[in-house]
Amino acid sequence: MIDPSKINIRDFDYPLTEERIAGFPLENRDASKLLLYQNGEYATHQFSELPDLLPDHSLLIFNNTRVIHARILFTKEKGSIIEIFCLEPADHIPDIQMAFQQQGKSVWKCLVGNNKRWKTVFLEKEFEYRGKTHLLKATRKEAVENAWMIEFSWEDALLSFAEVLAQSGVIPLPPYLNREAEETDTIRYQTVYAAENGSVAAPTAGLHFTADTFARLASRDIGCENITLHVGAGTFKPVSSETIDQHSMHSEKLYIERSLIVKLIENPDKNIIPVGTTSARTLESLFWFGVKLAVDGPIYEELEVLQWDAYQEKYNIQMTAAMALENILSYMKSRDMKVLSGQTQLMILPGYRFKIAKGIITNFHQPRSTLLLLITAMIGEKWKEIYAYALANDYRFLSYGDSCLLLP
Fold first, then answer.
1. Is 8 a domain residue?
2. Averaged pLDDT score across all residues of the chain
3. Minimum mean pLDDT range among 88-102, 275-289, 322-336
């Protein structure tokens, strides 16, 4: 049994200097380097070679979430700027897509930058849309933990919040880029297959894919399926505690179609390879939800996987991935559910044995991050050697950086 109290975050550090962090994307998405790790060996390729490097009978799982313009900047009369960063809709809104379709008013949990300068009852911001000038108001409600509930309202009651946000907000680039978003980021900090609004950070492993990549994957008969996990701001939260048991993992909303559950059950011999850590977390969360249904019974209203569920003795029972997925399929059929929704807080630690994912396509992650812990779970201590190799061979790191295909 994995003991989180014995995993020290200092063991997952490496010397990442600012010049190794990719500040901007390459001109062509698939021109990035690709580090292939297979059979204990690694080598440099170009991402455009990916379709030829994947094992036969592979099934790629993509996260089709779409990054929203979550940062709204309000300028006060004297020039100071107050930033409102939208995190998630208010609790009384059961579905994020419903929140985006709200008209006239919407309440969100938000981070507020420069909050001490907010002295007025509300903030105002003009924005242009369809040749007209509109006015957005933000009213601060109650404090919630380190955030605030903010009520947004606008004059044109026919406009949805999705339209308001798209025109009045900006793309929220990762804090380590240390720059403001530019027009090109609106396109490039978004996968070409992004479909479902809801993330405040891109599933960056997918940024390398192009229409040509998908065409070549199809020519090799490599399957491509989608899940949706809306990436939260917590993905950038550093591990500040010395041992992992003191770290609180962020929770993220996910959606999985029943047809994908069926496909996973019908293809047990497929090399299931998630594109990115978000897809990997989603697939593994499916397994543990199937286990929880077996142990606890069908008591859950939606998928619910907590941070330490995978490490609880009561849930460590003999169960194959197919059995866990069958449990979920029965649960969905009994409720006539076409889409499974819920939240996962699953933390994947070194020593964890993956239940569904057979490899991963991913970028290079920050030192001392939960994402690096997940990679270590996939390939073990070899991560140190691989990251040292990447640093020595001019790989570009983090969101706009190069990629890996890890096949342990």
1. yes
2. 94
3. 88-102
**Which CATH number do you get for residue 193?**
3.40.1780.10
Residue where a domain stops, chosen among 119, 136, 169: 169
Residue in the structure block whose two tokens are 């991050």? 369
Provide the whole-model pTM.
0.94
Q: Are 273 and 358 in contact (CB under 8 A)?
A: yes
Bridging pattern class, strands 303-305 and 339-344: parallel
Structure tokens at 292: 């929880």
Same domain, 35 and 74: no
In a domain, 20, yes or no: yes
C-beta contacts of 249-253 below 8 A and 24+ residues apart: 249/307, 249/345, 249/346, 249/347, 249/370, 250/345, 251/343, 251/344, 251/345, 252/278, 252/281, 252/343, 252/344, 252/345, 253/88, 253/96, 253/198, 253/229, 253/341, 253/342, 253/343
For residue range 30-55, list pLDDT tens digits in order.
999 999 999 999 999 999 999 999 99
d(CA 379, CA 386) in angstroms, rounded, equals 10
Q: Is the pLDDT of residue 234 over 80?
A: no
pLDDT at 90: 86
CA–CA gap between residue 76 and residue 237 (Å, rounded): 29
Confidence check: pLDDT of 146 > 90: no
Residues 238 and 367 in one domain: yes
